[in-house]
Design a protein that fits this description.
The chain has 389 residues and is an all-alpha fold. The chain has helices at residues 52-71, 79-102, 111-139, 157-167, 169-174, 178-190, 201-206, 208-216, 219-225, 228-248, 272-293, 309-325, 337-354, 357-367, 379-388. One of its GO terms (molecular function) is acyltransferase activity, transferring groups other than amino-acyl groups.
Length: 389
């Protein structure tokens, strides 16, 4: 049986860290929007402007994430929904992870960056893991559901993975062949059932190559993927992927796309671990490149929402799971073509609202807490402030 419904699905959006800043949507390497200096103020270095391409990519990817979650309850009755679900799951998480790796290139063990890693990733993980656990107790009528920081529930696995990946960034910048090494680790993880569920380490290791690729990428690599030839080539590639997914839907276990289990846990022969790891990696990279090819380069109406994708990612999980707990998909007409279209539009609309600036301001206390009280003052930073004064 293909796992759907209550299964935890990888979902996205990643936080991008600016060179020398925290891994949060607001602090990316692309920088904050430039502001005009006050009259008479001394001219300082011009702040770097955000790159609209990356904000657009994050927003479009999170919309695909939400739509895929809305299709999941429909896959048991609709082969088309299953094909779309499998196709999107092939590339939406790799796209997020590659962007996360790209904006993690400057991460090191400097105190201010470690502080931001804690406040921007670790603290939100703890808060949302506890919140999700209480939500499941209430919404699913499961008062005995445990609160465990070692067993990420539903979407929070990505924060654990991002924390681990960023901490290991100096290692990947040191070794000579980082991508082959990361692929080897992912392959070994796929045939290692004893890793267990603690901190979802299977996912951390099996998705690792995409983060390492992001670390190795340069701006010109994204530029090459955005050429007109790549756009034209992506159309038949996407069409072929959809046709293959439609054929494979009743024949393939969709758990392969989650990268959550070893081959033994999927009841597959051991040799399929390396084969499927490399095959899935290749397919994901091709479709991710095709996705990037169609991301707009210019500022769009939704560009500003790219800074709030992590908010939408974590908050929409309550609705995604609540819709299952409360039986919203038990309505028969939702499993008809018109119902499937309606569900898709509603999912895209909801995730768009959850990425808006008002929602970001309302939940910034949980997603980007300051927490100055929790850290010692850095002597080097104090010295820099005294010099500047």
């Amino acid at each position: 049986m293909r796992p759907h419904g209550s299964q935890r699905s990888p979902l996205p959006p990643a936080r991008e860290a600016e060179a020398g800043s925290s891994p949060t949507p607001q602090r990316e390497e692309a920088g904050r929007q430039a502001t005009q200096p006050a009259a008479g103020a001394p001219a300082g270095p011009k702040p770097k402007q955000r790159d609209a391409f990356f904000d657009n990519a994050k927003y479009l990817a999170i919309v695909l994430v939400a739509m895929a979650h809305s299709w999941e309850p429909l896959t048991d009755t609709s082969r088309t929904a299953e094909a779309l679900y499998m196709t999107v799951y092939t590339f939406h998480m790799p796209a997020f992870i590659i962007i996360s790796g790209f904006f993690s290139r400057s991460f090191d063990m400097r105190p201010d960056r470690l502080k931001r890693l804690i406040t921007g990733v670790a603290v939100p993980y703890v808060l949302f893991e506890v919140a999700y656990s209480f939500f499941k107790r209430w919404a699913d009528d499961d008062p005995g559901h445990p609160i465990s920081l070692l067993d990420p529930w539903y979407l929070t696995w990505f924060l654990v993975a991002l924390f681990v990946w960023r901490l290991t960034t100096p290692i990947w910048k040191l070794v000579r062949w980082p991508v082959p090494l990361a692929l080897a680790i992912a392959t070994l993880a796929s045939v290692s059932p004893d890793i267990g569920d603690d901190l979802d380490l299977q996912r951390v290791l099996q998705f690792l190559p995409f983060f390492v690729i992001g670390l190795c990428m340069k701006p010109e690599h994204f530029q090459r993927m955005r050429g007109p030839k790549m756009r034209m080539a992506s159309l038949p590639i996407f069409a072929g992927a959809l046709l293959f997914a439609y054929w494979a839907a009743p024949r393939m276990n969709s758990a392969w796309f989650y990268h959550r289990d070893s081959v033994q846990e999927l009841h597959a022969p051991a040799w399929t671990g390396p084969v499927m790891t490399l095959a899935m990696f290749g397919c994901s990279m091709v479709l991710t490149a095709c996705f990037f090819a169609w991301v707009p380069r210019r500022h769009m109406w939704f560009t500003v929402l790219g800074a709030g994708t992590l908010y939408g990612y974590l908050l929409h999980g309550f609705l995604a799971k609540g819709s299952r707990f409360w039986g919203w998909f038990d309505i028969d007409w939702l499993h008809k073509p018109l119902g499937e279209i309606t569900v898709t539009i509603v999912a895209a609309s909801v995730i768009t609202v959850l990425c808006t600036p008002p929602v970001q301001r309302a939940f910034r206390f949980a997603m980007e807490p300051k927490m100055k009280w929790a850290f010692r003052k850095d002597p080097a930073e104090q010295a820099r402030h005294r010099t500047a004064a």
